[in-house]
Amino acid sequence: MTRIIMHGANGRMGKVITGLVATDPDAEIVAGVDIAPGDAPYPIYTSLSDVKEEADVIVDFSSSKIVDQLLETAVERNLPVVLCTTGLSEEQLANVRKKSQQIPILKSGNMSLGINTLTGLLKTATKVFGDAGFDVEIVERHHNQKLDAPSGTAIMLADAINEAADGKYEYIYDRSQRREKRDKKELGISAVRGGTIPGTHEIIFAGPDEVIELRHIAYSRSIFGNGAISAAKYLAGKEPGLYDMNDVIAALTGNNE
User: 233 in helix, strand or coil?
Assistant: First the structure.
């Protein structure tokens, strides 16, 4: 049984994870942390330092503003952290790397097992199609309430492609001011916002006389919650270090030797 502290318990993802864990025989949320009021089947504190319950791991879906304090307290209590909060500054990312020398930290730009498996497929595809001169484009679609564009997931996918291509691509977000042919080193990233479109990410490899498309559609936040729970189970009891969802996938598939 993996005992979890839910950091950001009354947020949207905190509530989703609470519901998922309620039906999971191998996990339990023993306490939550949130400054906002709300109901939960476990005690909720306004500060992680106030939590009295024993736990194996912290799952964080909160705010970038409090991540530094979260990590400080986690180190003090020697608790692993599944860090799901995005939008961290370069200074905060450096602090994550520093703290991972003292406690295990798992960080990912997207907690979906599907998206993280897709990044691996993209690296393989890029080795084949990129070297063959195929153009690469990413189109992401989201509902009209999403604030950022392009999505963090789109950037995460682009980074996976660029890593496999040894960094040769330049990200192009807008061609409206360009009166020129597409350069082979461009990686186009387009964002669509409208209605209640679920999170959709489409990667296009366009070559001479053939097109290969890979697509991921998120129909609910449960996919991120399930990924976070899998990550919590994986991270509990691990040695200090910086982990990501690829480590979780490797463990689930038995390829972590």
Answer: helix
- Hey, what are 242's tokens? 């910086």
Q: Could you report the per-residue pLDDT of 80-128, keeping only the tens digit for each? A: 999 998 878 899 999 999 999 999 999 988 899 999 999 999 999 999 9
CA distance 193 to 21: 32
Neighbour count for residue 23 (Cβ, 10 Å):
7
H helices, E strands: number in the chain = 7, 12
- Residue numbers annotated as active site: 142, 146
Query: Could you tell me if residue 145 is left (phi over 0), alpha (psi between -120 and 50 degrees) or otherwise beta?
Result: alpha
pLDDT, tens digit, for every residue of 194-221?
A: 999 989 999 999 999 999 999 999 999 8
Q: Which residue has the tokens 């912290």?
A: 58
- Tokens encoding 85: 């909060």
CB 67 within 8 A of CB 88: yes
pTM above 0.90, yes or no: no
Is 21 buried (19+), middle (13-18) or exposed (0-12) by CB count in 10 A?
buried
Distance CA 165, CA 190 (A): 20
